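in:
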């Protein structure tokens, strides 16, 4: 009889502790991610990283990949990483760094890649990381770079 009561008590205790653990669980709804869009965005992110690499410095390419991805799929699971690449690429291009030269005589390029526009974009992208993704591994660098960009 004592064994039976011990067993009942143990089962009851496990049930109570399990219920309290479930009740404490974060109940934020998960974002329903489209696997095809995730795969496409991941491909664009990989290509952007290749363009961002120290030997390549194709910052214009990175920004164009980001624009395409962000317009089509802003809920990408690694959007903080993409925001970092776009923000840093915008900042570097605004400082005339990188291997891809800009044709600011072209109205389309001037509108998208003027240094003032690039600085503003860098502030927006890096600011989004600081505001929306404080747990991101890019948070600290985004914050530091934001301090370097002059406000106009």
């Amino acid at each position: 009889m004592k064994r039976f009561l011990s067993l009942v008590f143990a089962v009851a205790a496990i049930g109570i502790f399990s219920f309290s653990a479930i009740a404490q669980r974060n109940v934020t709804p998960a974002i329903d991610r489209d696997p095809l869009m995730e795969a496409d965005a991941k491909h664009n992110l990989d290509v952007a990283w290749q363009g961002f690499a120290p030997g390549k410095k194709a910052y214009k390419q990175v920004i164009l990949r980001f624009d395409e991805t962000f317009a089509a799929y802003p809920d990408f699971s690694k959007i903080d990483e993409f925001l970092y690449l776009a923000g840093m690429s915008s900042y570097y291009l605004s400082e005339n760094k990188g291997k891809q030269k800009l044709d600011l005589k072209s109205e389309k390029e001037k509108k998208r890649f003027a240094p003032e526009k690039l600085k503003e974009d860098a502030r927006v992208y890096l600011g989004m990381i600081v505001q929306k993704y404080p747990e991101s591994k890019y948070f600290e660098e985004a914050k530091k770079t934001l301090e370097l960009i002059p406000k106009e």
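note: The chain has one domain: 34-148.
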